[in-house]
Amino acid sequence: MSKQRSRRILQVVIGLLATAPLLTGLLGMTGVDNPIYSSHPLPDYVLLDSNLRYLNGFSVGIALTLYYMIPHIESHTILLRAICGIIFSGAVGRILSIVFLGLPPFPMPVFVLIEIMAPLILVVWQNNIRFSVKD
After folding, report:
1. What's the domain count of the chain?
2. Cα 52 to chain centroid, rounded
3. Cα 67 to Cα 32: distance, rounded to the nearest angstrom
4. How far apart are CA 119 and CA 123, in angstroms?
5. pLDDT tops 60 at residue 135
6. So what's the pLDDT on residue 107?
7. What is the average pLDDT score of the chain?
8. What domain range is 50 assigned to?
9. Which has the closest alpha carbon to 23: 52, 59, 55?
10. What pLDDT, in 10s, does the model give residues 35-92?
């Protein structure tokens, strides 16, 4: 596969992956009224609602930053690594929740796998493209 084609596929993959934090972040900014929690209603607790909305704002910010990077993905090494580190850290938090409270309902366990593997794959892929596009 050519390096330019690999770059283009990485751009598409990042664009597709960024839709998840964008959509779930926007949905999560509805706080405790989030439809995801409809089967397990949460109390109208101001601190919980505020934290849910705030933390989901990070997801929206991550998605918008990923979209920003797409046109020149090969030159945004530090930014991509920082975002991948944030996503990976979030996955560690989910794993701690699984250890202490058990598995969440589907599709959350799938998200954990994606959040663990995708950052590693994206960093290696972008690093390969970064050096090959300059050649």
Report:
1. 1
2. 16
3. 28
4. 6
5. no
6. 84
7. 91
8. 3-134
9. 59
10. 877 777 777 788 888 998 999 999 999 999 999 999 999 999 999 999 999 999 999 9
Q: Can you list the positions of beta strands (E) in the chain?
A: none
Are the C-beta atoms of 27 and 55 separated by less than 8 Å? no
Q: Do 88 and 116 form a contact (C-beta atoms < 8 A)? A: yes
Q: Is the pLDDT of residue 114 over 70?
A: yes
Which tokens hold the place of 99? 């250890």
Residues 101, 40 contacting (CB under 8 angstroms) = no
- Residue 46 makes CB contacts below 8 A (sequence gap 6+) with none
Is residue 13 a contact partner of residue 66, using CB atoms and an 8 Å limit? no
Residues with Cβ within 8 Å of residue 19, at least 6 apart in sequence = 63
Compare 125 and 107 and report the one with higher pLDDT.
125
**pLDDT, position 81:** 97
Residue 23 is classified by DSSP as: H
